[in-house]
Amino acid sequence: MMEVWSMSDVGLVRKENQDDYAVEQLPESEYTLCVVCDGMGGPAGGRQASHIAVETFVSEMKKQLRPGMSPEQLKEVSAYAVSVANRAIRQAAQASMDCRSMGTTLVSAVSYDKGTVVTNVGDSRAYHISADGISRVTKDHSLVESMVDRGDITPEEARHHPNRNLITRALGPDMSALSDGYICPMAVGDFLLLCSDGLVETVTDQEMLFEVLHGGDLATCMDRLLAISKANGASDNVTAVLMRMA
């Protein structure tokens, strides 16, 4: 069983919230399904792309999920749902000149009895949080992540790099939009945090860890993370979903 808290905010600079997310408790198939998308492509496309991705991904997952699926099977159906969402975005982009460049990131999690299966495309992230600390589950598909991997810059330098928003994979622009899948074992009381880069760029990992474990009532945890983000400028939309294994 999963408990879930969520929030999405336009931030302090942008005029429109182009992030989208969904939380679905599926008691008939015993799963909790969460997804966060961060749209791109200008005013005409970003909001539409993230909305299409969320709606299509969730719809396809509901069709594919069956009770008792293994983590490997959950990875497979999640990857397939991403490909269906990618096709839907590309079809919508072809139908409108104003939306030709639209795209979106995606990070999702579907629970199983011993943890979650995480899927991502782009630079929205998933973090595992427990009494042992915080660790990033996903790997960004971005220019600066490649630079970190090569040793050209440090992870701290990547946080402030001028090209930190250049991503190398996204739903929409990519024909295939290959996703990465991760099996994330969780114990009772562990957390999984899904978020767009608007949170990552303004709230440190240690601040996330503190607010989730020690900040106070979990019902206000999302508000506290958003307040930190806004105190640090919140130049982008900020979206997060927090899951706890109960």
Provide the fold topology.
Elements: E1 2-9, E2 19-26, E3 31-40, H1 46-64, H2 71-94, E4 103-104, E5 106-112, E6 115-121, E7 125-130, E8 133-136, H3 143-150, H4 155-159, E9 180-185, E10 191-195, H5 197-200, H6 205-213, H7 221-231, E11 238-245
Task: Write up what this structure looks like.
The chain is of the alpha+beta class and 246 residues long. The protein has one domain (2-245): Phosphatase 2c, domain 1 (4-Layer Sandwich). The protein is 33% helix and 29% strand. The chain has helices at 46-64, 71-94, 143-150, 155-159, 197-200, 205-213, 221-231; strands at residues 2-9, 19-26, 31-40, 103-104, 106-112, 115-121, 125-130, 133-136, 180-185, 191-195, 238-245. The strands form two sheets. Strands 2, 3, 4, 5, 6 and 9 form a six-stranded antiparallel beta sheet that branches. A five-stranded antiparallel beta sheet has the order 1-11-10-7-8. The longest helix has 24 residues, at 71-94. The radius of gyration is 17 Å and the shape is globular.
Strand/helix succession: EEEHHEEEEEHHEEHHHE
What's the name of the CATH homologous superfamily?
PPM-type phosphatase domain
Query: Would you state the CATH class?
Result: Alpha Beta
Name given to the CATH architecture? 4-Layer Sandwich
Q: If helices are DSSP runs of H or I spanning 4 or more residues, what is the number of helices?
A: 7
Q: First CA to last CA: what distance?
A: 5 Å
Unreliable stretches (pLDDT < 50, length at least 5) are: none
User: Helix content range of the residues, please?
Assistant: 25-40%
Shape by Cα distribution: globular
Total domains, how many?
Answer: 1
- CATH names the topology as Phosphatase 2c, domain 1
Q: What's the average pLDDT? A: 94
Give the assembly state of these chains: single chain
Largest sheet: 6 strands, antiparallel
Strand coverage percent? 25-35%
Structural class: alpha+beta
Rg calculated over all Cα atoms: 17 Å
User: Using DSSP, what is the number of strands?
Assistant: 11
